[in-house]
Sequence to fold (617 residues):
Amino acid sequence: MAVLLFATPLFAAPHVIDQKTFDTIATELSGERAQELDRRIVEYHRIQGSPMMESVAKDVILPALKSANVEASIEQFKSDGATTYQSYVSPIGWTMRSGELWIEGATPIRLCRYSDIPMCVSTYSKGGEWSGEVVDVGNGTSDNDYANKDVRGKVVLASGYARDVVRKAVLKFGAIGTVIYPDASDRPDHPDMVRYNGVWTRASELDKTSGSFQISANQYAKLKSLMSAGPVRVHGKIDADLGPYQLTVVHAYIRGTESPDDEVIVSAHLDHPKWSANDNASGSAALVEMARTLRMLIDAKKLAPPRKTIHFMWVPEYFGTIAYLTQHPDKKGCTKSASAPCVVANLNMDMVGEDTVKTNGRFYLTRAPMSVPSFLDALLPDVLEQTREASLFAPSGTRNYWPASMIDYYQGSDHDMFLGVGVPSTMLGHDPDWTHHTSEDTPDKTDASEFRRVGVLATNAAYWIAAADAAQWQALAPAMVAERLRVDGERLMRLRRMGNALAGRVQKEMATEAASIDNAKLSTRGVFDVGRASARPAGLKPGLRSTTTTTIPPVFGEVTSAWNLNDLALFEAMQFMDGTHTNAEIADLLTIEFGESYDTAWVDHAVTLLQSSHLAQ
Fold:
């Protein structure tokens, strides 16, 4: 017999999701099941484009889905360090078996053993063995770091990201290997943890690249102490292979009964180094439990089958999603004019099972960027509040207060890819988290209660989007207008404080929105039919002056620091390059959205750089 585990009764003011549906899902979804699956996933070294990633998909995720009677399959895409999917170069395949790093001497000191801390070998490191004197070059990512330092035939010690250090130290200046230590400002209160870094070797670099290791702050201090007394040598050995392989994506479906070709995609990235529990074994485990819960309730006739298809996807972060969207160009956002099948929304689960006390984190859902206005901004705050009112916990979980909120659009996961094709998208995650991308991201930092709360929220939201009828969608329309008014009110006040004339434009738009609240219309695909356009045309087309043709905005971390451009602003600028805006108009939109002054010259500069870089394919 099922038992409701609620600390307070489940009744309150009416919500978008009827309480019976909410309670049905909340009763069935298990935080313990998700947490247990998290513990199984972390046993695999889940690196994008590798046999290890394929193994966890085939050995853990697929069997769990099939045992729950969920329709599931695997799709794979070429991944070889050379094949591109739009602006993304696929990662090379990496098979990792063992690795160690020692300080040489009369009494050798071991700094890294892969079997103990898998993260201590930088991902995509080339197999091999080397010994050499250690030279500390500081950050190690610019030519200036190597001025007056001879590193040829030696081992570079640096604090920069492994990919950038290796390309300077090994490929350009002739070092035989690299050892990466944490920057002094990076979580100094945790001197024994090892950071996650990757070399991201390209196929063209195979003959020249080398292996790289990660060490802790305390290990770095030990090395520096020894170096102060004279030259120090280290010996590294890595047993690994680099070569062509495949990106592995798992699909699962709860098929719709009325519009099965229209989809709600719920995604999570399955990759990350062994032991990485919150990032993102938690999202991947939660997805399985969500699919199991819905399949069981529908089969038991406790829930009606959804009208639209709910499509669950486990992907290699960024790369699997971009490969999928590139190979399936029909998977794009819905528009007012098109009747073809479309993706109604994406809920991206990235770090959703944390013990918020242990990690000092909070749960969040992201709002929409200005370029892809979204009905999710009206729906999700209400579902969040409904979940909070339920005071959910798991039998073996904590009873901690739930720090949870909506936040402004935040980049950094696969929802970015879906936004690039006009799909309303949100990320569910936790931040801050002192364990993020470190050896401390382990299963003991997860919480069955958090798995349950977030799983119930996301499952209810996904099911409502897929199952709602026309009347339910229409009832959401006024809330969407109200949310737009709230956001535009904040923008108006920022612009007024700046003394910017665009404040008048925003004020007029708010008047139009306020007048439309009584007759606002929302289609059963979530497309808004009153006021400003609810979504840009699906897929980027050449702008009137912006001729870059990249469909999915790229991950900008590699280039924007050199360009002196803001990642999020560049992302939005590319989103607005849709064939309907001049560069001056794009600059105005950026100014309105971010409350900072952007001019045509800034957009011209961005376009020129995009056209001249490898990002514009």
